[in-house]
Design goal:
By secondary structure, the protein is α+β, with helices and mostly antiparallel strands. The chain has 5 helices and 5 strands.
C-alpha cells in the first residue's frame, strides 16, 4: 500500500518545533516593541497594540516554514500585553524621559557587528549622561543564561567604548513584564 499524497497545490504541514515557534515569537515581539517604543504614552492602548502586532508580522524574517500566524497571534498578544502593561517597564519603553533613544542600534567591536534591541540615554541633573542597553528576552530568568550574560557584557562594553567617560548600564525586559538589571551603570 502506497502512502497517500497531499492534494495537488496544498503543501503538507511539517511539524514545527517549540524552539522554532519561540524564535518566531521572539522576532515578532521584537518587531512590535520596535514600533511600540516610538508611540507616546497617550496612544498606547490595547487596541493599538493589536494593530501594531498585525502590522509587524510582515517585518518578521521568513522562517524555513510558514508559521500559522493566526494560531501564534494570541500567544504573541499575551506576551506583549504583559510587557506593555507592566508598571516596571513603562520607563524603559517610553519615548518621553530619554534625551536619546534608539531601537535595533548597530554597533561594532572586534568580534563584528551587533544589533542592540534598545539603547537609551538620560541626562542627570549634574549634566552627566547615563546610557542603558536594553535587551528583550522571552525567557523569564535571563540572568541564569550564561550566553545572555556574555551578550549583554559585549553590548555594554561596546557602548562604553563608543561613549568613553559616560556611565553605561544594562538590563533585560522579559515577557513576564519584568525589568531584570544586568549591572549598575559604570564609567
Amino acid at each position: 500500500v502506497l502512502p497517500s499524497l497531499p492534494a495537488r497545490g496544498v503543501p503538507s504541514a511539517a511539524p514545527v518545533s517549540e524552539a522554532a515557534v519561540d524564535a518566531i515569537l521572539g522576532q515578532w515581539v521584537h518587531a512590535v516593541l520596535e514600533q511600540w517604543t516610538l508611540l507616546p504614552q497617550r496612544l498606547r492602548t490595547e487596541a493599538r497594540l493589536g494593530q501594531v502586532l498585525r502590522s509587524s508580522q510582515a517585518r518578521v524574517p521568513s522562517p524555513a516554514h510558514t508559521p500559522d500566524w493566526a494560531a501564534l497571534q494570541p500567544r504573541a498578544m499575551s506576551l506583549l500585553s504583559h510587557i506593555a502593561q507592566s508598571p516596571a517597564l513603562q520607563r524603559w519603553l517610553a519615548v518621553e524621559p530619554w534625551d536619546w533613544a534608539g531601537n535595533e542600534v548597530a554597533l561594532a567591536d572586534g568580534l563584528g557587528t551587533m544589533r542592540l534591541d534598545r539603547l537609551v540615554s538620560e541626562l542627570t541633573p549634574d549634566g552627566s549622561r547615563t546610557w542603558w542597553v536594553i535587551d528583550y528576552k522571552l525567557h523569564h530568568d535571563p540572568m541564569a543564561n550564561p550566553a545572555y550574560l556574555a551578550q549583554m557584557k559585549r553590548y555594554v562594553d561596546a557602548v562604553q567604548a563608543a561613549q568613553p567617560g559616560e556611565r553605561v548600564g544594562g538590563g533585560f525586559i522579559t515577557s513576564a513584564g519584568k525589568w531584570v538589571p544586568w549591572g549598575a551603570p559604570g564609567a
